[in-house]
Amino acid sequence: MKKDNLYLLLLLLLFASCNSTKQGISKTTHSLNSDWQFKSSNDSIWRNASVPGSNYTDLLYHGLIPDPYDGANEQKVQWVAELDWEYKLTFDVNADLLANNNIVLNFDGLDTYAKVYLNDEIIVNSDNMFRKWNVKCKELLKEGSNSLHIKFESPISRNILAAQQDSYQLPDNRVYTRKAPYQFGWDWGPKLITSGIWKPVTLVTWNSLVIKDIYFKQTELNKTQALFDVVGEIESDLFQKVNIEVWDRTNNICLTKTMRDQSDSESGSSFSIPIVIDKPKLWWPNGLGEAYLYDLEVIVSNNDFSETFKHNIGIREIKLITAADSIGSSFYFEVNGIPVFAKGANYIPQDNFTTRVDSQRYERTIKAAVDANMNMLRVWGGGIYESNYFYELCDKHGIMIWQDFMYACAMYPGDKAFIRTAGIEAQQQIARLRNHPCLALWCGNNEVDNGWKDWGWQKQLAYSTEDSIEIYSNYKLLFEETLPDIVRLLDPNTQYWPSSPLWGWGHDEANTEGDSHYWGVWWGHEPFSMYEKKVGRFMSEYGFQAFPHQATIDSFAGKDDKYLFSEVMKAHQKHLTGYETILKYMEREYPVPTNFDDFSYMSQVLQADGIELGIKAHRRAMPHCMGTLYWQLNDCWPVVSWSSIDYYHRWKALHYRAQDCFKNYMISAVLRQDQIEVFLVSDSLANTKGSLEMSLISFSGDILWSKNLSITQKANSSSLQHSINVSELPRFDKQNTFLNIQFNTEEKTLAEETIYFAATKHLKLENPEIKIEQTNHNKGVLLTITSNTLVKDLQLSVKGEVIHFSNNCFDLLPDSPIKVFATGIGVSEGIKIELTHIHKVAQQIE
Question: 661 and 753 in contact (C-beta within 8 Å)?
Fold first, then answer.
């Protein structure tokens, strides 16, 4: 027999051995998301409701409240959260459905205090937004018409009652409710406390057997094989023999087939089956390689029925390394044996009304992170556990996820009922997310330990010694016992970190141990230059505010509202001294516009410059520092905030700056008195040879000095490549000259840096002649932009249009063309580009 024929026969035999006889489908899911009605409990009129949804979005649909995001309307709709709300549904059940052996009513998310009645019988008493409820209900259903009635109690009234019953006052009443903390208001978000059915409702029928859970537990990884235990749980009508198959659908290979006799098993409905994937392709973070995914499928069947489970997995090892060293303790992520510098931002929910975030918004947000060369997002603990689709996108694009549990900035109860619901929440969320290769870390909370030790709660609330002991004991019970125990049990391959940060920013240890939230800039009013001194081992929070784009401001403010302390602008600035802080920093180094639009633009320049200084200081300090996640990536409504992308997905100057700073290669030049130190940073896993090209150039384009060096940058490192004393340079006007530095290979420029010798407000900028050539290109317009003189912080915009530019808010060097690709709906050659830059703004001030 020929080799080809023998190979074909073996494939056919393998396929036959893994292809069981066709069975009926055991499980059927019926949606119950249509035809709901709602009303407040003191109203008599029922109106149509959307499920998933909330009381706020339903009221908006019917025109019963103004848009809370418009103007100062937020305060006009606070009454909504103070009322109780009711939702009801009538649905038909036929004899065929009732004939199924098992019928389960699933509520994936109820927000939050809800009593659920099925045909007037109470079946759920919800106290947790973050958990699901599954109720066997065959005996309660009847042929014909059936009713669901859900009564939601106001979270505000429940919190007040819980606080009154406590023997001491906790720092914030919101802690009594397992509900998205940010909805109670934050210093970037409105107070809009929702109630309603925020995730799908389904009626599931099944016969004979059903898969309850599958966990692909990686047990070993080497160059030739990846070993997994497929750990599952089955529910069946009776003990019986079942066939279990595991398929690699990416390569159409049956990995294993086994028969299991449940009646002989000591583990009952649980099973664990080993599988081997030969010659595994690894999953890598963005920028380091392909985020390769395997499409795995588990089929469980008997003679009559079958049930399947599918999930994309990535083969990788992610470890958090926290090892004692000469200065403290490290904090970095090792991926597939390689120390990886984490580059990214903190992520908050994309809307205060979470059900309005559709797949397109998720795709745009994750694409923005990928396009900015990020490899990690921190899902912050004051929001929500995100949708499955969010994590699937991060899997696909190589974005590692630091996942907080949903606790932030307050102390929490420790009674049995609270710990029980917190434990169930953790069990369900861990089981849901643990198969995602993007998942890098479970973190207990955001700033709870930091707040207890540094924010003065004990003194402010006059705790007795006994109170303090009890409150902190409750902290340890939840974050140092309950949550880590559940993580170790259900997701042993993902590490747990109890609280972020390890130390508050006022402690010296914040620079030497664990992760750090550095807020000396902004909260402490320390200068941006402190970013170069306060460099911790992993910078998991730091940030600065800026205005959103003018078109975003136009969405909530009228012409007469456009001044800093108008009622509307104050409503869209949630930090008590936000505008004063922006102004204080702007006055230090920038021209301060009196025109509102120019002030908005200048705030973005200010934010971008400040955070760029931080990012470069952090990357330059590797391996001492191995991560930089600025606060924050996105917004939940149109607002003046720390975000780099505003609510309508318009990139601020910071996001463009991050796109450049997070490239695999980065130059960071530091001027220390009369010494210029030129650092080169590389995340590449290979050494790189190239040339370091330095030029001292006047604003009008005269080259005053230049120097080229052949260098080799070591893989995955930061190094001081060159040092220049200013005395070595020809005499030059520090207000009219810049130093341009490039790292070039024969093929392209890998990194570029431009540094100035005076504060922006002291630069002698000239009126530029800017030319823009437009050419239609690949469903967009290619802009070639040139100038006869330096243009500082050039911002491109198109009035009234949502346009995305491949580069923006950049310095345009004299006689050095920059190509920018513009895309958006209806973009074509001839679009009118509006230009803003520092000199233009400064002229208007004069």
Answer: no
| Locus of tokens 């930089």 | 628
**Six token digits for residue 603:** 């705030």
Task: Pull the structure tokens for residue 411.
Answer: 């102390």
- What does the CA dihedral 606, 611, 612, 615 come to, rounded to 10 degrees? 170
Picking from 682, 667, 677, 688, the residue whose alpha carbon sits closest to that of residue 718 is 682
Torsion angle of C-alpha atoms 638, 640, 646, 651, degrees rounded to 10 = 150
* CA dist 442 → 103, 387, 396 (Å): 34, 16, 20
- Strand order through the sheet with 688-698: 703-713, 688-698, 737-744, 749-756
The H or E element spanning position 403 is strand 400-404
Tell me the C-alpha distance between 475 and 482, whole Å.
10
**What is 270-293 written as a DSSP string?**
EEEEEEEEESPPBB--TTTS-B--
Cβ-Cβ contacts under 8 Å for 752 (sequence gap 6 or more) = 667, 740, 741, 742, 743
φ/ψ bin of 473: left (φ > 0), alpha (ψ from -120 to 50), beta (otherwise): alpha
d(CA 328, CA 326): 6
Separation of alpha carbons 632 and 643, rounded Å: 5
pLDDT of 268 strictly over 80 = no
Is residue 378 within 8 Å of residue 353, measured between CB atoms? no
pLDDT exceeds cutoff 50 at 5: no
Q: How far apart are CA 382 and CA 409, in angstroms?
A: 8
607 Cβ contact list (under 8 Å, min separation 6): 544, 545, 546, 642, 652, 653, 654
Mind listing the pLDDT tens digit for each residue in 76-127? 999 999 999 999 999 999 999 999 999 999 999 999 999 999 999 999 999 9
Segment 815-822 mean pLDDT: 95
Is residue 721 within 8 A of residue 680, CB to CB? The reply is yes
| Cα–Cα distance for residue pair 372/673, rounded to 1 Å | 32
Residues 195, 185: Cα–Cα separation, whole Å = 15
CB contact at 8 A, 454 and 398: no
Residues 6+ apart with CB under 8 A from 254: 14, 15, 17, 18, 19, 245, 246, 247, 248
The strand ranges marked E within 620-663 are: 627-630
Amino acid making up residue 805: F
**Global pTM value:** 0.95
Phi, psi of 145 (to 5 degrees): -80, 135
pLDDT in tens, 17-51: 454 445 678 889 999 999 999 999 999 999 999 99
| Percent share of the chain, pLDDT over 70 | 96
Place of tokens 């390394």: 321
What's the half-sphere exposure (Cβ side, CA atoms, 13 Å) at 32?
Answer: 25
Give the three-state DSSP class for 464: coil
Residue in the structure block whose two tokens are 């003990």: 239
Assess contact for 398 and 377: CB atoms under 8 A. no
Per-residue pLDDT at 91: 97
Residue 239's pLDDT is: 65
Q: Look at residue 844 in the predicted model and tell me its pLDDT.
A: 83
577 and 520 Cβ atoms separated by less than 8 Å? no
Side by side, which strands form the sheet with 27-31?
Answer: 27-31, 201-206, 102-107, 133-136
How many angstroms separate the Cα of 843 from the Cα of each of 625, 757, 836, 837? 41, 21, 12, 10
What count of other Cβ atoms lies within 10 Å of the Cβ of residue 462?
A: 9
CB count within 10 Å of CB 818 equals 16
Distances (CA, A) of 51 to 122, 329, 561: 20, 48, 36
Query: Positive or negative, the Cα torsion across 819, 822, 827, 832?
Result: negative
Say how far apart CA 377 and CA 396 lie, in whole Å. 14
